[in-house]
Amino acid sequence: MLRRQKLGAPEHKRDPAAHGGTLSMSHNNTRSFFNFSQLVLSAGHLKSPPVLKHSKITYFEVEILDVQSKKQICIVDKVPPSSTLLDVKHKFHKACPQWYPSRVGLQLERNGPYLKDSVNIQSLAASSIITLYFTDLGQQVGWTTFFLTEYTGPLLIYLLFYIRLSTIYDQVESTKNFRHPVVHLACFCHCLHYIRHLLETLFVHKFSGGHTPLKNMIKGCAFYWGFTSWIAYYINHPRYTPPSFGHRQVSLAALGFLMCEAGNHFINVALAHQNHSGSKACFPSPTYNPFTWLFLLVSCPNYTYEVGSWISFTVMTQTLPVGIFAFLMVIQMSLWAQKKHKLYLKKFYPEVRRKAAMIPIIF
């Protein structure tokens, strides 16, 4: 009995140790949880990952109708709001390959103006469906091609008459008659005029990729090439008579012609620099170059110089065809100058309101 108590004593002693071990482990777990809580609190609130919001893009549908019959030609769908009218024309060309973008004319109304390619499609939208009217503008050519073709013809045509081809003039008269110096001077001035135009087309004027109908180029070439043939035939004819006042008339007229050609060039350079300098738009102002001082009197001095060149050429050669051509050029240039002057009045009224369009005081 006693023995059994001694043997049971160690078992009784082991129980407090086991109980103490359990308390020690619970205490360590509590301390660990407390430390983790302090770490979380010191780190701040846990942020949930951002929710990605999918923005809805509204696409437009462009319905294109024939301007005459009002029949639907096609529908250009899924047009983004940032698209321009040129983008719509390219998509329209994919649907209808026979009409490339430059010959497509689009109108918001049947009798309205043609919309520019740079117009944003969202600015035309009253709803998700935009209706535009289509007009076939016909065969188109670029402005650079237009001017190069128009100016190359007179240059070559005049030289053909200058060398007096046997198919144009009588060969016997051509060899007998002496050429007056004004004939050579007229050839030089005429070639200089059109060479200047060609070089300015290539290196001075900047065209924004616009186009014009092919029929306009045909009409322009018929006008310039036809008059050049008429002018060159008379001046280079073996029976051509020199001006009435001789050398003095020719010299003064040639000087005026060269001054107008120089002035025209410097004005075109000034206008090109003004349009593409990247600065705020303002009316061109005269510089230290005396040829640009004409800006003080007129709003379109390039037309003034152009008319001056042909008037000087008329006085220098004293021929009827040149006089008629110069007269027509005065009418045409004055119309262009009036149109441009009205645009200048809208943009730069305070600077232009006291200026004439092309010729001071008269127009």
UniProtKB/TrEMBL annotation:
One of its GO terms (cellular component) is membrane. It comes from the Eukaryota. GO terms for molecular function: oxidoreductase activity, acting on the CH-CH group of donors. The keyword Membrane applies. Residues 60-136 form the TECR-like N-terminal domain. Keywords: Endoplasmic reticulum, Membrane, Oxidoreductase, Transmembrane, Transmembrane helix. It is a multi-pass membrane protein. Residues 1-24 are annotated as: Disordered. CDD domains: Ubl_TECRL. GO terms for biological process: very long-chain fatty acid biosynthetic process. Belongs to the steroid 5-alpha reductase family. This is Trans-2,3-enoyl-CoA reductase-like. It comes from Anser brachyrhynchus. The lineage of its organism: Eukaryota, Metazoa, Chordata, Craniata, Vertebrata.
